[in-house]
Write the structure tokens for this entry.
Amino acid sequence: MKFIDEARIEVHAGKGGDGIVSFRREKNVPRGGPDGGDGGSGGSVYAVADRNINTLVEYRFARIHRAQDGKHGGGAQCSGKSADDVVLRVPVGTVIADAQTGETVADLAAHEQLALLARGGKGGLGNVNFKSSTNRTPRKATPGESGEHRTLKLELKVLADVGLLGLPNAGKSTFIRAVSAARPKVADYPFTTLHPHLGVVRVGVDRSFVIADIPGLIEGAAEGAGLGHQFLRHLVRTRLLLHVVDAAPFDPGTDPARDARAIAAELEKFDPGLHRKPRWLVLNKMDILPAEERETAAASLLRRLRWRGPSFCISALTGQGCRELSFAVMKFLETGKVA
């Protein structure tokens, strides 16, 4: 299924049915009086979060969603039938905003969470509601109210505890394959990851966390270079960012420290709040370096970056250091402390 994380839709709630003017017409019942019934309510449009759905692809093509109108009232004080509501099922983590004002309508972060998108109109009143001691034959009824209609923007932000950040081919997909059952594409060319992947990392009985792998960033992403910033929204809900750096690039002209600073700058351009999230440096592909040079190379890179936060040396390909990193992440998520 194609991964779609944005959509724009129109929702139209139903109009309420009209109340009617009616009088009893029965044999041997002279002057029977008013008996016009009320109209039924129009259908409303709701959205509900469903953990069994992981994309907004359905709403990329089905853009208009209408609820039915309520039925008109009838004689003998019969009320019109109310229309059924329309329920749109969306992935957990969907943010719904008004396309005109930008106001957030709903943030569906839990399974089965329900949100009203457009309220159906109330049914009108029949003339039976207007009878009184001074008005025995009211000839007044009210029409049903119009239903709400609006244009909405749907935006999916995946729910994950940890997000992977880094340049294309830094080894993010290889890492998520090493620590979870997720199987994103891995190849020797840039941008093999074209949409986010989620994996569950289990470190013990009833101890696990969800990790998100997003397409790689490059310098200039804020101006649309590469795949731009369009997938960074999926890191907004995470509690920890793992910045994966290729510590042993094949190209001798590549500078890992410069690249790491460029990614941090792109993160700040997108969202200063995201830039302030806890971020750990993960030096990957250490297996390429001779064993006696690894510690010196890592120390040199950290010194050039003036890095004072947590850092880990791993090889996602061989699994070296991945288990230790997973346990450290689990401890941080449980206690807020670095192992």
